[in-house]
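During the reporting period the student researcher (J.K.) took over the structure-prediction task from the postdoctoral fellow and processed the backlog of single-chain submissions. One of the processed entries is reproduced below for the supervisory committee.
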Amino acid sequence: MITILLIILILMLIGAFPAWPHSRNWGYYPSGGLGLILLIVVVLMLLRVF
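J.K. obtained the following structure tokens:
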């Protein structure tokens, strides 16, 4: 379950990266927020909370 969540978060992070025309005006806010969530999930996995 956690692996699927991690894969979905990585795909969302790539999709929100402001390199494509549809997301260029968003700035770094969406990818920064998703990156923070991804970092929290990875830390929780390393601490074996899940």
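The committee noted the following: The longest helix spans residues 29-46.
J.K. will present the remaining backlog at the next meeting.
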